[in-house]
Write a structure and sequence with these properties.
With about 550 residues, the chain is mainly alpha-helical. The chain has two domains: about 25-50 and about 100-375 and about 390-410, no CATH class; about 420-555, no CATH class. The chain contains 23 helices and five strands. It has helices spanning about 20-45, 55-65, 70-75, 85-95, 100-125, 130-140, 145-150, 155-175, 185-200, 205-215, 220-235, 235-245, 260-270, 285-305, 320-345, 355, 360-375, 390-410, 420-430, 445-455, 460-465, 490-500, 515-535, and strands at about 435-440, 465-470, 500-505, 540-545, 550-555. A five-stranded mixed sheet has the order 2-1-3-5-4, with helices on both faces. A hairpin with a 5-residue loop joins strand 4 and strand 5. Helix 2 crosses helix 20. The longest helix has 26 residues, at about 100-125. It is elongated. Mean pLDDT is about 90; it is low at about 1-25, about 310-320 and about 375-385.
């Protein structure tokens, strides 16, 4: 049958030419990105202000509340760690105040962005499988560790986000066919996200070796990637100077590598629990077992797929080469930083493993989604798919994982492992308006969250009767006291006892009897402080708050 011909003799155009379909697919991709981001934002925004600030969040408040040279000195004292995050929080406090939801809002936004970025990476790696992409985004954000840091006034949620953004920009560069120029925006995005990740957390340096190894898989633009990395590192020269001046002494509290430390890191990586911050639920063991089995299977099958022969990008490639490269990308992102962190820890470099492993949450989500929804799917039409997890089984397994994770997340809302709000309220209630009392903190970091809640509780009536002696700074001033472990001499204790018939001693993170050398020294200093005060105050009573790092509140009386 002949096609109709117009009066001019030309063949009529198709009513729906091919370019019309591209925006539809593009809109569908954006919808998936937005959906994963919305889920992440929602989970992090629930009960955002109900959990009490803990010690490190108090440091964020104290550091970000400074101005001018005091702000720079406070950031430099921390070795430049979270420099960009402190500056951002400083601006937010200046614009919107220091309510806890304001302090934590950047982390909520970062969690949302992580979900969207994970979907975007999955769409690039497995372009024919939107179901896989959505599952990867959801598995990334429906995670107790990421939700916790997404509700925390620290920079760890942003570290994960910038980690994912750096790898997405790198992937866009590597997937550009050989001989075709790479977009300037992709290069700029890669340089800035990589540098920003380092300015948020030094742990981002573990990602750079993984990105360099990927140049052996995608060989089209290696020189450009290396040049871009050099540019990112040059931007970080001021950060390196600050870090070298500070050294690693601030990590004295990191315990030596042990099976217990490694076990906690593993369950955090599996998004199955978060010890010691949250207690186990009735489904925690099941979540750990199911997550571990699926993750081990994903890594094993991923290694098998990655060992398949991969052709160079831009050359004719068999249908199996694209998934092989994609799986290699994810495995490199997952295994190289984790392996380097373990190696550094084993040789004695202090690494907070439980926090480093959150960098691996997006690649593990991608690999898990690939196992359950993509291992048997080919991205090219007309190719017989390989054997894999049946689609219904894969969807059921993803649903089960998400449900088990939610069962860990929901009970965590509103729980305060370090309830500084309750500590401040208790001290104010137990300090009569007509009785003078002194207050001391060990370490002096405890002054930071106490300061925050003293202001938020509007305790003006009690401030005149509650005299700070360690540190001896008026309540009208806010100053950071990051890891300052100072005690009192016997003569100083005698002078304080003469002025104040009652004294509060509040301690948290006071050191460990069997910890590192510095940690043990801090603990002995704490014991000496207690002895000094006991020598001048014959009566004392102690209350304990929280459980992750217990807060001890001791009232000494004459």
């Amino acid at each position: 049958m002949r096609r109709p011909v117009t009066a001019s003799g030309s063949v009529p155009q198709q009513q729906h030419p091919l370019p019309v379909e591209a925006p539809a697919g593009f809109n569908a991709d954006l919808l998936l990105i937005a959906l994963a981001g919305a889920v992440g934002a929602t989970l992090a925004a629930i009960d955002l202000a109900s959990r009490s600030l803990w010690l490190d969040e108090g440091s964020t408040f104290a550091i970000s509340s400074q101005h001018g040279s005091a702000l720079w000195h406070a950031i430099a004292h921390d070795g430049g760690n979270m420099l960009i995050y402190y500056l951002l929080t400083h601006l937010l406090i200046g614009w919107f105040g220091d309510a806890s939801w304001v302090l934590r809002l950047p982390s909520v936004l970062a969690t949302a962005a992580t979900g969207g970025l994970t979907v975007a990476i999955a769409l690039r790696l497995f372009p024919s499988n939107r179901r896989l992409a959505l599952a990867a985004g959801l598995l990334a954000v429906v995670s107790l560790p990421l939700v916790f840091w997404g509700q925390d006034a620290r920079g760890y949620a942003w570290l994960v986000t910038l980690d994912a953004a750096s790898f997405l920009a790198l992937l866009a560069i590597l997937q550009t066919p050989s001989g075709r120029p790479v977009g300037r925006g992709q290069v700029i995005a890669y340089v800035l996200t990589t540098a920003a990740a380092l300015y948020v957390g030094f742990d981002a340096a573990l990602l750079i070796p993984a990105q360099l190894i990927l140049l052996t898989v995608y060989r089209g633009h290696g020189r450009l990637v290396i040049t871009s990395l050099v540019g990112a590192l040059l931007l970080c020269v001021p950060l390196v100077v600050l870090a070298l001046e500070r050294g690693t002494g601030q990590l004295f509290w990191v315990p030596p590598l042990s099976p217990s430390v490694a076990g906690k890191a593993v369950v955090i990586l599996l998004s199955a629990a978060m010890p010691p911050n949250f207690h186990a639920t009735s489904t925690t063991v099941v979540t750990v077992l199911v997550s571990a089995l699926i993750s081990l299977a994903a890594v094993a099958l991923g290694v098998r797929a990655a060992l398949a022969r991969t052709e160079r990008l831009g050359s004719p490639a068999p249908s199996s080469s694209v998934p092989s490269r994609s799986v290699r990308f994810v495995l490199c992102w997952l295994l190289v930083p984790s392996g380097l962190a373990l190696l550094a820890y084993a040789v004695g470099e202090p690494v907070e493993l439980a926090r480093v492993v959150i960098l691996a949450l997006p690649p593990l989500a991608l690999l898990t989604a690939w196992l359950l929804l993509g291992a048997g799917v080919q991205p090219r039409a007309g190719v017989q798919p390989r054997a894999g997890v049946p689609p219904r089984v894969g969807v059921a397994a993803v649903t089960l994982l998400l449900a088990l994770r939610l069962l860990q997340i929901v009970p965590s809302y509103g729980l305060s492992p370090e309830p500084w709000r309750g500590v401040t309220a208790q001290v104010l209630r137990a300090t009569p308006a007509d009785t003078r009392a002194c207050i001391a903190f060990y370490p002096q970091d405890g002054r930071e969250p106490f300061d925050y809640y003293l202001r938020s509780l509007k305790a003006d009536a009690h401030v005149s009767n509650l005299v700070p002696v360690l540190p001896a700074l008026p309540w009208s001033q806010v100053r950071p006291y990051v890891e300052e472990y100072s005690g009192l001499t016997s003569s100083a204790g005698s002078r304080i006892a003469t002025r104040c018939p009652r004294l509060w001693l509040i301690s948290s993170h006071a050191g460990q009897r069997n910890g590192t050398r510095a940690s043990a020294a801090n603990y002995r200093r704490y014991q000496h402080l207690q002895e000094v005060l006991s020598g001048h105050y014959p009566h004392s009573s102690t209350s304990t708050f929280g459980w992750a790092s217990k807060i001890e509140v001791t009232l000494f009386e004459r």
